[in-house]
Design brief:
The structure holds 2 protein chains of 2 kinds. By secondary structure, chain A is α/β, with parallel strands linked by helices. Chain A contains 3 helices and 9 strands. In chain A, helix 2 (76-85) links the parallel strand 5 and strand 6. Chain A is extended, with a radius of gyration of 20 Å. Chain A starts with 5 loop residues before the first strand and ends with a strand. In chain B, the strands form 4 sheets. Chain B has a 5-stranded parallel sheet, sandwiched between helices. Classes of the chains: A alpha/beta, B alpha/beta.
Chain lengths: 135, 382
């Protein structure tokens, strides 16, 4: 986790049977840490710090992935502007859940190709056939 | 409906330690009530021939083997493609309204059996029952949504700009689709692909993750009961994912690959699919930022953080991976998040009191420990 990072809770694998890992919070994680670039896929929450909006956007986009993102702000105008600048296929603004069968699920950059769900999902399984008709 | 190719033989090796609490006994009982079989002509063979069984399914909370599923060969994968090919003309010609009605029945049956399915998901994946129930509802909704979409597939008919002819555009089903799904949402990742494919008029071969195949087989049971004809949905499990998948992708009758999994495996599959210029839909890895500005509602941000991070114990491609927090709210956010995270009860997903279940494999749980000073491990493939 690199220099300077601190564990506020969790951090040690649970002993005994079963593949358990405790919910973990890490603060002051350097942005250059390996874990900032890799998908954690576990109950570990690393916190990074920013001062300006530009800095936040730059940090958010500093990854080869672009699947989901989350933005929390009381200023809807700023929220939508930041959503516009974040490179992701799906963004949750002031909420923690983005998945919905009625909406297009998918990513940009190296997070994927195409969309599932919504009106877009069925198009992935169809091909247009064009017929030029004279009569 | 012709169900001649379905075998209802129960899987072997459904042994569980008899010790344990009431809820464990309850889980085992519910689990054994499920009829598991594959919706594939080849499958009859697999179920009958014990020697083809070869993939143990492990409960990650107890490390016990709870079932064994067939380990399909290349040849058997071709049988599945044969079945999808044979069923294709009939399904394609099935009126959209009828396809929609069948999909709607899949939705209804999934919800009727939500508790049973949730328990199965929790047993093989480890996730908390509340998460598993949420997944069943989410997964079933794809059937309802695409039942509604199936009858609204539209084309085009217009005059060419030159005035010399009409332009007619018809939307056709793309053809046989190979669907490859991960272990983190055993039900939803399957239905998110199967429902639109069936709505469009395609037949499919599903290869679920070998860690969590039981939900896929249990859902296949539901599809059959809902009226999905034989051969329209074919489920196969294999330990040799690479060669078996390659064999299917290189078959000229297969026209589509839809994959959900890691970016690494996605790249490999795209390279394989390039050989036959296959249409690909890829849902790959993520590294979601969770940005909190000073002016955010702190409680709402913490509520959101817990959902974005802890749904599925963090095992989601949409999971918040980097909390990017502004100076002025940083300490309060860290304190609030720590309080909430520390309060989560860790345990077997099948225990109703559990909020955070186990990781899917030992590698995963030790990988979380690799957070400590060692370099961050590369994300293992699905």
């Amino acid at each position: 986790m690199g220099k300077g990072a601190r564990v506020l809770t969790g951090g040690e694998r649970t002993e005994g049977r079963g593949y358990f890992y405790p919910p973990t919070v890490l603060v002051d994680v350097p942005v250059a840490a390996e874990m900032a670039r890799e998908e954690i896929f576990g109950p570990v929450a690393p916190l990074y710090r920013f001062s300006t909006e530009d800095e936040a956007v730059a940090l958010a986009n500093d990854t080869e992935y672009g699947l989901a993102a989350y933005v929390f702000t009381g200023d809807l105008k700023r929220g939508l502007a930041v959503c516009g600048r974040i490179e992701a296929g799906m963004i949750a603004l002031n909420r923690g859940l983005v998945s919905d069968p009625a909406a297009p699920f998918g990513g940009v950059k190296q997070s994927g190709l195409g969309r599932e769900g919504g009106v877009h999902g069925i198009a992935e399984f169809m091909e247009p056939k064009y017929i030029a008709v004279s009569f | 409906m012709d169900r001649g190719c379905y075998d209802q033989t129960r899987p072997q090796a459904m042994k569980r330690a008899s010790s344990g609490s009431d809820h464990e006994e309850y889980s085992a009982k519910r689990y054994q009530r499920l009829r598991l079989f594959a919706l594939c002509q080849g499958a009859v063979y697999w179920w009958e021939m014990g020697r083809w069984w070869g993939i143990p399914v492990i409960n990650p909370a107890t490390e016990e083997v709870i079932a064994e599923v067939p380990n399909a060969s290349d040849e058997q994968a071709m049988n599945a493609v044969d079945a999808a090919h044979a069923a294709a003309p009939g399904w394609r010609a099935t009126p959209p309204r009828k396809r929609a009605e069948i999909l709607l029945r899949c939705h209804t049956l999934m919800l009727e059996r939500a508790d049973e399915l949730a328990m199965l998901i929790s047993l093989e994946n480890g996730k908390a029952l509340s998460d598993a129930r949420g997944e069943v509802t989410y997964a079933a909704e794809f059937f309802r949504w695409y039942a509604e979409e199936a009858v609204r597939i539209a084309g085009e008919y217009r005059m060419a700009p030159s005035g010399s002819n009409r332009i007619l555009v018809d939307m056709e089903p793309i053809g046989i689709a190979v669907l490859i799904t991960p272990w983190n949402f055993p039900a939803a990742m399957a239905t998110r692909k199967i429902a639109p494919a069936l709505a469009a008029g395609c037949t499919v071969v599903l290869k679920p993750a070998s860690e969590t195949p039981l939900t896929a087989y249990a859902l296949a049971d539901i599809y059959a009961e809902a009226g999905v004809p034989a051969g329209v949905v074919n489920v196969l499990t294999t330990k040799r994912a690479g060669p078996v998948t390659a064999a299917m992708l290189n078959d000229a009758r297969v026209r589509k690959l839809s994959f959900t999994g890691s970016t690494g495996v996605g790249r490999t599959l795209l390279a394989e699919a390039a050989k036959t210029v296959l249409s690909c839909s890829m849902e790959l890895g993520g590294n979601a930022p969770f940005v909190v500005f000073d002016d955010a509602d702190l409680e709402a941000a913490l509520d959101g953080a817990m959902v974005a991070k802890m749904r599925n114990a963090g095992e989601a491609c949409t999971a918040a991976n980097r909390f990017i927090v502004q100076d002025g709210i940083y300490d309060r956010f860290a304190e609030g998040l720590t309080k909430r995270m520390a309060a989560l009860r860790v345990g077997a997903g099948t225990d109703p009191a559990t909020a955070c279940g186990p990781m899917i494999t030992k590698k995963r749980s030790t990988r979380s420990r690799a957070l400590s000073p060692t370099p961050w491990a590369r994300a293992p493939a699905f």
